[in-house]
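Recap quiz, item 2
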Amino acid sequence: MPFVEDPAQLSKSRLKSDLVAHHVALPPAASKKELYVELHLKHIDQSNCADFSSDDEDPVHDVVGEDPENATVLDPSALTDKDLKDLLLKHGVKAGPIVASTRAVYEKKLRKLLQSGGKEELNEAENAVLYSDSDEEEEGDENKEEQEEPEGEQEQTAEALKLNQQRCNKPPQEPENDILKEIFPDTNATPTGIYATPRRPIKGAAQRPIQYAYPKTPVSPTTLERREVERRLVPIYIQILVFFTVVYVLYVISVIVEDGSSVMPLLESLNQWSDSEEGSPALDETQDTHSASGEL
Amino acid sequence: MSSTSQKHKEFVAEPMGEKPVMALAGIGEVLGRKLEENGFDKAYVVLGQYLVLKKDEELFKDWLKDTCGANAKQQRDCYGCLKEWCDAFL
């Protein structure tokens, strides 16, 4: 658009049709023209923001932009898939396909973004300033204030909030690492053994059990033994089987050597047994014994 | 102190095929039943959801929490399991 359309100069019906054309949810029919103007500015003019940056427009735009943001887009579930995706994109979230199963997640994400929408922009500005130079924080704030006037006061408080949030996020992770470091190396031990700092609690004392990151499951000696035994369970049976086989073979040999009268029935029983169990080695043996007894 | 469980290793070792949703690391009986109630009866359906969310960690974890009430550890385990499976087979 080569020129700026001042929504305030348009008629109410014109604003209405514009909003419908841009798929924006209309406010109730009896609302004032101002509401339509705000909506118009928010949805339609914001898309032209990238094309021009006018200082005149911004203050009006920002002041107007904050209120309707909460009033109109309050219900992401009322948006179409395309609008939801567009809004997410505007907040820097490259959303995937908005399907039945993903819609809920993206709506939730958008709600989260809308709530922290103002703080997010300030956080980005803050980060940019932090990365550049920490000393320039205050100066950067002042510069930002000059460029984005109405959000000056909120910026500082939001900044403080963000900093606190960041600090709060860190300590929960610290105690875990500190515990491990303190227990195992134990190099920084004080004479009394008590390590008291403002942030770290006294470990192992005053009914405060040491919390390992991954608590070990208690393993008693009996379970260890049982595990070993179970590992060897199969080999043990094989050993026993082999033992009895050897015993039987020796017995047979001793019987043959004795050469008693009861050899034949024993040999027959051996034959039967060997046929069923042993297989070829025993068969050879019985054949030899048969031939030996046959000759006798 | 292993960072991945036995279940994770077993799942990541081979294509998931028709494995049930409870074969995923972090998903036990309770969570598995809730997922099944929501229509995610096989591991590949959850994989589908993970892919449709463009493998985004935060979105997938949020979805998992909303769908079956998984806690942070379970979310982490499930996400890690699927991520590694995709790295290996996708």
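The longest helix of chain A spans residues 221-258.
Confidence is low (pLDDT under 50) at residues 58-71, 144-152 of chain A.
End of item.
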